[in-house]
Amino acid sequence: MNLVLDIGNTLSKYSVFVSDKIIDQGTWQSLNIIEKFKTWNKINPECQSIIVSDVYGVDNSIFESIAKCRLVWVSSNISLPFKINYKTPDTLGSDRISLIASAVIKYSQKNCLIIDLGTCITYDFVNEFGEYLGGSISPGFSMRYNSLNTFTSKLPQLEFNKPDNISGNSTDNSIHSGIYYGILAEVKNQVSHYKEKLENLTVILTGGDADKLANQIKNVIFANHNFIAKGLHTVLQLNTDEF
């Protein structure tokens, strides 16, 4: 039995593998991740290996003291199924590494653009030779809503609402339109940029806000959590020889 743990800023997703099959999965609040992880380890002493992708910033030493089996932290320093051609590999987030690895494993020998719509929107490109060449980072939906309220004196704090029209007929509708169509145009432009340079491109859309752009972008693959979980499990297997 192996555990794949993807710790996000708000929620942490876990998947339990036996061989290469997921037998259990769920989510924990990242705020309570230490207690949840401690409880899980206590009731699953047969776990053999754990891989953790962490953007929340847990205390590694606490995690390692809880785990009673080998534990792999996702970083640029472990064995990966792709080559990192990035000026600052140590600053490459574990969430981006996880997505790139999953794409290379699932769509080997293909040019892949991985778009993750979460707190931030990340764009990562890996070519058909398994070389990661970098990407882009921009604010996501919630960050844009929050920034308009935080950095102005009169604009309201709003939650996402898909606009019916690009021309907003009120302040609220103008904000919804600006954010939604701004992100949509940004994503489409990124896809067009890569497609102009490459005849064959696989575009993967994932993240908690990916569904907000459903049916708006042609020829993309919507990847769910299992996509990342299975990729991370393969990365875990690549690193078990080190123990």
What's the CATH superfamily of the largest domain, by name? ATPase, nucleotide binding domain
Number of helices: 6
Mean pLDDT: 94
The residue ranges in which pLDDT falls below 50 over 5 or more consecutive positions are: none
The largest beta-sheet arranges its strands as 6-9-8-7-10-11
Q: Assign the structural class, choosing from mainly alpha, mainly beta, alpha/beta, alpha+beta, or little secondary structure.
A: alpha/beta
Helix proportion range: 25-40%
Overall, the morphology is globular
Rg over CA atoms = 19 Å
Q: Total strand count, please?
A: 11
Q: Give the CA-CA distance, first to last residue.
A: 16 Å
The string of secondary-structure elements, in order, is EEEHEHEEHEEEHHEEH
> What number of domains?
2
Biggest beta sheet summary: 6 strands, mixed
β content, as a range? 25-35%
CATH topology of the largest domain: Nucleotidyltransferase, domain 5
CATH class of the largest domain, named Alpha Beta
Walkthrough of the structure:
By secondary structure, the chain is α/β, with parallel strands linked by helices. The chain folds into two domains: 2-73, Nucleotidyltransferase, domain 5; 83-229, 2-Layer Sandwich (Nucleotidyltransferase, domain 5). The chain is 34% helix and 26% strand. The protein has six helices and eleven strands. The chain has helices spanning 33-43, 60-66, 94-106, 141-150, 171-197, 225-239, and strands at 2-7, 11-18, 21-29, 49-54, 70-73, 83-84, 112-117, 120-126, 131-139, 202-206, 221-222. The strands form two sheets. Strands 6-9-8-7-10-11 form a six-stranded mixed beta sheet, sandwiched between helices. The mean pLDDT is 94.
